[in-house]
Amino acid sequence: MNDKETGLTAKSTFEAMLRSQLIATIAVAVIAFVISGMNASLSAIAGGLSVILAAFIASKVAISKRKDAASVLGSMLKAELIKIVLIILFLFITIKGFKELVPWALIIGLAAAAIISGAAMSKRNEHLKI
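Request: output the structure for the sequence above.
Response:
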């Protein structure tokens, strides 16, 4: 998909979203480190990376080769389901494996990445009709 006026593609939109999520996760991790130390920082990174990795994998599914509305919608819904399942899986692994987990930092890292992804997509969608 490509917007002929701006030259934006769905791929560049997803890349911008992932970049924004990474920046937000790093910012939360730095703040968590200042407030509560290394374990809080690592917890925030784990929360943010859960969303970032899931979104990255889902973005590969979301880009449909076919242009009809049903195919695009189906790809987007499948990608969203994959993203949600992967986030749950990554969080489960983190909670079970990271004994020094700081719950508030994990949740804020996850929320920051999730909120930023929605904001980045809606901002870019003003220019790209996907």
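The two ends are 7 Å apart (CA to CA).
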